[in-house]
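FORM 7B: Structural annotation worksheet

SECTION A. Query
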Amino acid sequence: MSQIDPGTSAWLRTRNDREAFRLILEHGSLTRTRLGELSGMSKPTATQMIARLERAELVLPVGEVAGSRGPSAVSWGVRTDRVAGVAVNMLDGSIQASLVDAAGSEYPIVDLPVQGEERSPEHDIARAIDAACAAAGADRDTIETVTVAVQAAVSRGQDTLSLTDSLPGWPAFGARARIEAELGVSVTLENDVNLATMAERAVGVAQEVDSFAFLWVGVGLGVGVDLGGTIHRGAHGSAGEIGYLTVSAGTGEPGAVTTDLLGSQVVLDLLRERGVDYPQDILALADDEQALHTVADRIALTIEPVLVVLDPAMIVLGGPTGLAGGRRLAELVAERAAAEERPVPEVRLSGTGESAVLVGARRLLVEQIRTILEERIPTD
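SECTION B. Predicted structure
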């Protein structure tokens, strides 16, 4: 938005148009009359705001609302075909992607195998964008922004990645810049567990607490730390990389790390040792009470430093293993936390499920897309 003097008619007009745009986004669609009621503006002013937004190609008629008296009224919604984004989740053996628009509409999630594929930041994300657009029936040219979840520590200011075991072909320096230069889109790289943590704060079980730690238990381990609604990333983006914390207790091996206690392959081996019928499936964990106790013991050991240093109000268990253990696993971890001589955090199972990472990425993108569209509201 260009600079305009506060208090002028142009400034007031732009302010009103932005408010109208936000209200239409918030409510999905509005008639002129309802927009006037919500904004406190007269119906003629609401009509003018709608007309300016329509000329800017930001809104369009989406239906009619029957009136209690007189003819039906046209309902207006935000155009979702102008600017879109793609949420991408870089997994060990595949790439997940889904289209995102300003309304937060639901679109298919595509899963792209990576075995045998050329690997580089720009190639991986180009594949993800193309597949997401094809699945959603969207025009590739509408994609202006992408959020990429990575299993790595991300220093966003310096465009560096570290602990990148699951990103073959991705450089430690300059991955974001390479994608932006090659594909012509704005790119946000973010740690996957941090995105899951954002989702939990927004729509999961941690909406009402002051602080919480999201423990992701899967192939690897990670902790997302939310302090008052803000993700704590650390000076270099590596806060929460608890899977690399050295711990010898429970492994019998000097120099072992927490992933050696709780990584999914370790849990599968535990189930196999116990003679579970389908030990190749982490979902078997929920059916083995003794295995649940063992995993709870290891989680309690893993989160000990988090509890001592951060004292969060809640611990949220997520990731494939955390979800497989279910509420029973959360109960067992809570019992172990209560046995210590310190304030006891609440322990809850994640409320965002298997798609937590993409949910977080989508929410970031919705805000970014809305900002892009708002900046296209005329100022003269």
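SECTION C. Observations
The longest strand covers residues 143-150. The chain has three domains: 9-79, 84-191+358-373, 205-351.

SECTION D. Sign-off
Analyst initials: ____
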